[in-house]
Amino acid sequence: MEFTAKQIADFIGGKVEGDINATVNTFAKIEEGTKGAISFLSNPKYIHYIYDTQSSIVLINNDVELERPVNTTLIRVDNAYECVAKLLQLYDAARPKKQGIDSLAFISPKATIGENVYIGAFAYIGDNAVIGNGTMVYPHATIGDNVKIGEKCKIYPNVVIYEGCKLGNEVTIHSGSVIGADGFGFAPNTEGYAKIPQIGIVTIEDNVEIGANTCIDRSTMGSTIIRKGVKLDNLIQVAHNVEIGENTVMSAQVGIAGSTKIGSWCMFGGQVGLAGHITVGDKTFLGAQSGVPGNIKGDQTLIGTPPMEPKAYFKSQAIFRKLPDMYKQINELQKQLDELKGNK
After folding, report:
1. Which residues contact 256 (CB under 8 A, 6 or more apart)?
2. φ/ψ of residue 220, rounded to 5
3. d(CA 79, CA 292)
4. Kind plus residue range of the DSSP H or E element containing 327
5. What's this model's pTM, rounded to 2 decimal places?
6. Which of 18, 76, 148, 224 has most Cβ atoms within 10 angstroms of its Cβ?
7. Residue 140 known to be catalytic
8. Which position among 140, 174, 240, 277 bears the catalytic label?
9. Sign of CA dihedral 67, 71, 77, 82
10. Dihedrals φ, ψ of 58, to 5°?
């Protein structure tokens, strides 16, 4: 499908600078632009590419000032990044969706399958499982007994959802993720460690996306809960009885210990680690590799271990680099002090 600059501008509320009839049929990064592609510019570091890009159309923020004319057609908007996201969503929605049940899939006769569902080869659907309308279960995915999956979900290959877990509508789970494995619960005794049965479930609300190879453990009792709108990157560990608030996002390799409660609209950088049985307030922003040993109030940006305000953290790091020299100086001063004491 082709779209003109005018059609695109009308859809996203932008203003065309250049040829309103310029057409595009694909997307490209601005530095890899080709004829017939639309690109976007939102990061000032990439502004030099706009003068030579071969893309037919470029989305650009209203406040960007160019030093010289460009060959491409521009569409100016308030937020280019947000607008390209809308266009990509439109493009994705227009692509044909898989439907039908492959003859090589196993579906329990006790399962309930909705309308317009896709179930790929070698997928497994257990007893009393419920698959909602328009949901896609890709090959080799395993849906355990009594699992309930809402409408328009995407369960990619090799995802495993253990028995009893519940998913809302429009949930996406990428390949290799495991939902509902046992929480890490063991009681030490004289012979070693006795396993504590994990009899709870995982509940995932609407519009959640979970990256590849992420693991969300079932609760000891009750439910581990992922609230609506949460976005989890690849390789994240969510332990038993954790609750993650609405619209919180986490980058890769975040680890959350058991029974921790995380607020809404939080943002965690890569490799953030949180201790168990703590509470993190709403709108907490944690920089990469932050280690959180205790409760945190919301509405703040923190970094480091233990977390502190960025200004204090970077000051501390500047001092940390000087510690070897400071140690030598202290030793020299101590020697001089000892010599002075010896002379008295």
Report:
1. 236, 237, 238, 239, 242, 244, 262, 274
2. -65, -50
3. 33
4. helix 323-343
5. 0.88
6. 224
7. no
8. 240
9. negative
10. -130, 130
